[in-house]
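@channel sequence for tomorrow's demo:
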Amino acid sequence: MSKIKEKREELNITQEQLAEKCGVSTRTIQRIEAGAEPKGHTLNALTKALGLEVSDLKESPSVMVHSDHTWLKIINFSSLPLTVLPPLNIVVPLIIMFAKKEVNRMNKQVVTLQIFWTIGAFILFMLASFMKNWFDLGNKLILVTMIVLVLSNVFVILRNSFEIDKRGKLYVDLNFSII
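structure tokens (generated this afternoon):
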């Protein structure tokens, strides 16, 4: 539960009353109580109306990780069983992300990472196939390449999940998205 909602309920006022007191819409109060971060005028009006300081409205990291990153973890983990079928490790997370309307920076980065991994895996697999023929290395090179590619993707997915749980961020942070 957000601190704003807690304080509003403690003061025994409705969302509509708080919105009127702050000079914002009721929908704005609803979004803020659902997790949106208030800024500027809204932040100042809320702190004044609720008798709080700006620092009082900052959520503790452990609460934010638990509540804000549930869908991020689900989207990240949805790629795991599909690492052996590279196109599906992109499609399924995309479907979940858009179906649940969880289109945000970190979710986009998870899908972007899977897109880059799939492209890279295809290139490396093709290279291994050509090397097998050029250097007469046999089929073991193809098998080893497939295993290494799948294990690398599994490692990144699990490591991202660990970082999401511990720090609320991704281990592989691309800082851009192609979606």
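heads up for whoever presents: Confidence is low (pLDDT under 50) at residues 60-67.
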